[in-house]
Amino acid sequence: MTRTMRKLVAATSMLACTFAITPSAYSADAYPTRPIKLIVPFTPGGGVDAMARLLSDALTAKFGWNIVVENRPGAGGTVGMGVLARAEADGYTMAIGQTSNLSINPSLYKDITYNVAKDFTPIASVASQPMVLCVLADKPYKTVAEFIAYGKANPGKLSISNAGRGTVGDITGRYFAKEAGLDILHVPYKGASPAMTDLLGGQVDAMFASAPTALPQLKNPKIRMLAISTTQSIPQFPNVPPLSDTLPGFESASLTGILVPSGSPQSAVDALSSHIIEVIKSKELQAKISEQGNVAVVGSAQDYAKTVKADSAKWSKIIKENNLQIN
Fold this sequence. Notes:
Blueprint: H1 3-21, H2 23-30, E1 36-40, H3 47-63, E2 67-71, H4 78-86, E3 93-97, H5 99-108, H6 116-119, E4 120-136, H7 144-153, E5 158-162, H8 168-180, E6 184-188, H9 192-200, E7 206-210, H10 211-214, E8 223-228, E9 253-261, H11 266-281, H12 283-291, E10 295-299, H13 301-321
Parallel strand pairs: 1-2, 1-3, 5-6, 5-7
Antiparallel strand pairs: 3-9, 4-7, 4-8, 4-9, 4-10
């Protein structure tokens, strides 16, 4: 073999080694190379949508990522999560999931088009959204105890709105009615905004609103907030007592996080998780999340996976023991 041929063979071998070694490292370093879709399984303007946009803006501001928010509402969030389950597992589609579509609806409906454990890979926790029991201020009940007493004295006459069938507000309302021994008409809407609008208009008597939906009404003289579904009061609602003060042990919240389709590249999973955790740790984003009525939660992919599993077990038990059904 001539000297020229030996050099050519050596150069070819080095080039082959380079291509054999570097693709995964290059992919990890270069990710993302195109826009990332963030599916929001609820209508624009609601608490989950607002949180998703805060996260999207934070990732764009800090890392220059291009995040495209896509609202895919319907069926208590199950439509959007079904879209995620069928999306290409390439690391460029994620969704903001929460308690209703991950932990409640799989125990309520038989026709769910996804399997949480099999179809999704958790990425990171984002926040917790408590629920607030809101009524009109001109009503005769000023406390949860008085609301329950009124409901028992007037069976079937109270109505309570929610953001949609199978949402956390819906099931919290049903759980509350069961625990309090009340006969209440549950009125689902296509989103939190119209549900709150009809409460303000007097078309319904009460609403279990997510904290972000309730917060803008905190100083509204037309609204009285009877209780919050945490076991302790939170800073955003300092004068709103925990519902557990009246119904011991009662607790409800929407636990929110990011997921991608199962089988997504590990390099993308790791990049998404680490970058999302980094922005959620920032005081600036935590302050914005708090301003909306949420409680920021910093949790890794493993942490969020455990949260979803525990939350699913909790709500499955509540639904079964209380015979909660969507008619």
